């Protein structure tokens, strides 16, 4: 009897980017929940964005509890896109 191996159905990534500008610091936050299956490389990355509090509820974890600054959505502050596989290899 082979051992059972748990394979996650999804994985997540949280990005907090901080950029200095003339008016101070810009905090951009992106939370992504991506299915553990092949996805089209031309899918908009925004398709997989979820609110931080939804990801915290799903994972049972707390992120950035001490962050006092307001954040803007990451994909509004910068270009968000999936990198096609041919560009993965330098």
UniProtKB/TrEMBL annotation:
One of its GO terms (cellular component) is mitochondrial inner membrane. Pfam families: Endonuclease_NS. GO terms for molecular function: metal ion binding; nucleic acid binding; RNA endonuclease activity; single-stranded DNA endodeoxyribonuclease activity. Residues 3-69 form the DNA/RNA non-specific endonuclease/pyrophosphatase/phosphodiesterase domain. GO terms for biological process: apoptotic DNA fragmentation. Belongs to the DNA/RNA non-specific endonuclease family. This is 19555_t:CDS:1.
